[in-house]
Amino acid sequence: MENQEIRQVDNSINGFISEIRKIIDQARVHAVRSIDHARVMMYWNIGKRIFEEEQQGKDRADYGQYLIKTLADNLSKDYGSGFSKRQLFMCRQFYRTYPIVNALRSQLNWTQYRMLIQIPDNDKRKYYELEAVNEGWTSRQLERQINSMLYERLLMSNDKEAVLAVARKERVPESPLEIIKDPMVLEFLGLERKSAYYESDLEQALISHLADFMLELGKGFTFVARQKRLLIEDDEYFADLVFYNRLLKSFVVIELKTHKLTHQDLGQLQLYVNYYDRYEKLPDENPTIGILLCTDKNDTAVRLTLPEDNKTILASKYQLYLPSKEQLIEQVNQVKALAEKLKENKDD
For residues 182 and 155, is the Cβ–Cβ distance under 8 A? Predict the structure, then answer.
């Protein structure tokens, strides 16, 4: 064959090989999911039988404890540590949390269900269950979202029904506040505990962990640019990070600050947002959103700096380490108190 014919044949074969690889990869994914779901069903059925057997001996004190211990001793001899007493207690808890077998989701594995059944709040557990399926979270990602208290942080600027409605796909987010979180938790960067960082260091760390950062940003984000050059007459400006949110149908410009927010920072971000609105945004797209990520902020100063009807410039405090439950509760209470105060002032 001539060289040109050989190249055509090679291109055809390479396309064919790619198709076969896709078939194999898809089959492997389906096989893993089938195994994971079979494991989930096994533990659910075990939990069901344990619960039913316990009910027969409910009049006997400590019967359940004795039953599970005896079962664990017997099963562990033949099947190993996957049937320990602790695991069997989880099976029972799994069945009691999800007593209807049709409610189980084939997209979730046993590791994910183990995390979910440890959440006592029904609404909170339902939110993580739905979002794990909707967003295709891995076990590690689900664990991260639970530990970073995603649900509680969303409730700081949204009501519970709105958050759950989005998770149930009953509505699409209409406002940046429904997606953007404050505070943002960036523990995945793994940065050392220092008193200060250069903004370029923080930016590089975010780019190096872009997938994790987009998970923290929330639904619908796609990456557009880093250090986007904006030429305004003879002056050059550079926006730190630019994303696009397909749910909000708008560009999202993010500026990083390694200090407490100032009104000059807000003015700089407003310039970038105005630029995108006037030169980049298409007529059918929504106004550009600006997010100022800072180490600390004065909410009153933010409100006084920005127009009263501002809906596109947001200031979000970032944390490099996971907050404790007590810290987050304190933050939630502060936000609620501020919202109530604003409502009272508006009513007056």
Answer: no
Residue 20, burial from CB neighbour count under 10 angstroms (0-12, 13-18, 19+): exposed
Cβ atoms of residues 233 and 216 within 8 Å? no
Q: Is the pTM of this model over 0.90?
A: no
Residue 315 reports pLDDT greater than 90: no
Q: Is the omega angle on the peptide bond into residue 183 within 30 degrees of 0, that is, cis?
A: yes
Backbone φ and ψ of 317, nearest 5°: -80, 135
In terms of residues, how long is the chain?
Answer: 348
Q: How many CA atoms lie within 13 A of 2 on its CB side?
A: 2
Q: By the 8 A CB rule, do 68 and 54 touch? A: no
**pLDDT tens digit string along 156-202?**
778 889 899 999 999 888 888 888 888 899 988 887 766 566 788 88
Q: Phi then psi for 229, rounded to 5 degrees?
A: -80, 125
Return the residue matching tokens 């997010």.
291
For residue 340, the SS3 value is helix
pLDDT tens digit string along 121-169?
A: 999 999 999 999 999 999 999 999 999 889 988 887 788 898 999 999 9
Residues in contact with 177: Cβ distance below 8 Å, sequence separation at least 6, in sequence order: 157, 158, 314
Contact 342, 308 (CB under 8 A): no
Interatomic CA distance for residues 196 and 44, integer angstroms? 49
| CA dist., res. 201 & res. 203, Å (int) | 5
Q: Do 223 and 210 form a contact (C-beta atoms < 8 A)?
A: yes
Structure tokens at 207: 């780019």
DSSP state string for 159-184: -HHHHHHHHTTSS---SGGGT--SSE
What's the gap between Cα 194 and its chain centre?
Answer: 26
